[in-house]
Amino acid sequence: MAESGIIDGSLLTQGYFGVDWLKPYALFGLENTDHISNACIWSMIVNIGLFVVVSLLTSQDVDELAQGDLFINIEKYTNSPDVEVIPREASVQQLRQLLIRYLGSTKARKLLNDFDGKVSEKDDDNASNEFINYIEKNLTGAFGSASASLLLSTDIRRQNITLEQLNDLLKQTKEILEYSQALEGKTEELTQTTKELADVNTQLKQLDVLKAEFVSTVTHELRTPITTIRSFAQILDKKDDIDPKTKKEFLTIILNECDRIRRLINQVLEVEKLDVEKVNSGESSSINETLKIALKRLQPQLEERGIDLIWEEKKTDIFIRLNQDKVLQVLLNLLSNAIKFCDPLHGIIKIEVDENILSREVSLKFWNNGQHIPEAYHSKIFDKFTQVKDGNLAKPEGSGLGLYITRKFVEQAGGSVFLTSSEEEGTTFALLFPAD
């Protein structure tokens, strides 16, 4: 206005009211800039300053909170196009007319026929959010989002959100989060269950392999003594001129093979009982007495292998809460193993029995100077049909049930079995029982 002469032109050279720092083209002393830059700088300063001051001095209403959340946290809503933070209202008839006006009657009818949702009848002219979104989507596809928003601006109104509606929205969001967390927990449970089922399946496969090995082992173990018995029985039957000494040797072999079959059958039957029987009978037995019986039975094997046995009998007898038959079988199993795997040139077996009065525990140790058992097999060796030979798992020589039965019997008495083994110190099986 000053440049065109409508007002006094001195305003440009002397400033408002003659104040030099209020000259329009050098406001507050900002000189050497073109008119557009000068105006832009001061307009932005004033506008931004007012925006910040008013924002700090006033509080948001519910609509502004919802709009702000939609603007700032848009990622929450981009994957859910049907979610309306601020509910919208529109007339079904007006939206139909809008489609016909801008897309033509033919295409508009086709789009309305293709709409999967329910369009309100004339007596209820309020359009659903689904229908509003459908119209907006098709107009956006034809004209672009900016133009579509402009076309719909006069026909779609945004409802005012009450505090109660906002609370409902927050509750729904909380429920969705809780449901999502619950689903995550269920997913973790299913993952764990799947892993457990896979482990069980692996164990079942291993048991299947063990069963096959067991059938093969037992069949072999039964066939060998039966063949021996049959052979010697045929000799005794066909030859009448056998001298008494030879006949007695043959009969001794037959009796030993019969005992071997009996032991094998007893072990198999014992395993079947162990899988059902869980409680100790409560009977007690003497360690000294039972050890004497076991050593007497194994004396021929000790002498045949030339094994030195070291055992000092305790003057005071020690008792454990396990019946004598089971204790005897435990001792026979451990001593037979020690004999079998002793040093073949000069075998030594040492037995130690001790009672700790303070802890009321009884310990039995069976040491031999034979081959050592690698640490990786210290737990596996007590499984069914398992045996270690030359530092590796091997097919059992026998039923492969001895140590399994031993561990079960000891656990029935409330005790534990421990194994230590090394190339330098040999192998030791240690049994720990509560004293009776």
Question: Topology of this protein?
Answer:
Layout: H1 10-14, H2 35-57, H3 62-72, H4 75-78, E1 88-90, H5 92-103, H6 105-114, H7 129-143, H8 145-152, E2 156-158, H9 163-238, H10 244-274, E3 285-286, H11 287-305, E4 308-311, E5 319-320, H12 324-340, E6 348-356, E7 361-368, E8 387-389, E9 392-394, H13 402-412, E10 416-422, E11 426-434
Q: What's a concise summary of this model?
A:
The chain is of the alpha+beta class. The protein has helices at 10-14, 35-57, 62-72, 75-78, 92-103, 105-114, 129-143, 145-152, 163-238, 244-274, 287-305, 324-340, 402-412; strands at 88-90, 156-158, 285-286, 308-311, 319-320, 348-356, 361-368, 387-389, 392-394, 416-422, 426-434.
Characterise the protein shown here.
This protein is an alpha+beta fold and about 425 residues long. The chain has 4 domains: about 10-55, no CATH class; about 60-160, no CATH class; about 195-275, Helix Hairpins, CATH 1.10.287; about 285-435, Histidine kinase-like ATPase, C-terminal domain (Heat Shock Protein 90). About 55% of the residues lie in helices and about 10% in strands. The protein contains 13 helices and 11 strands. It has helices at about 10-15, 35-55, 60-70, 75-80, 90-105, 105-115, 130-145, 145-150, 165-240, 245-275, 285-305, 325-340, 400-410; strands at about 90, 155-160, 285, 310, 320, 350-355, 360-370, 385-390, 390-395, 415-420, 425-435. The strands form 4 sheets. Strands 4-6-7-11-10 form a 5-stranded mixed sheet. Strands 1-2 form a two-stranded antiparallel sheet. Strands 3-5 form a two-stranded antiparallel ribbon. A hairpin with a 3-residue loop joins strand 10 and strand 11 (about 425-435).
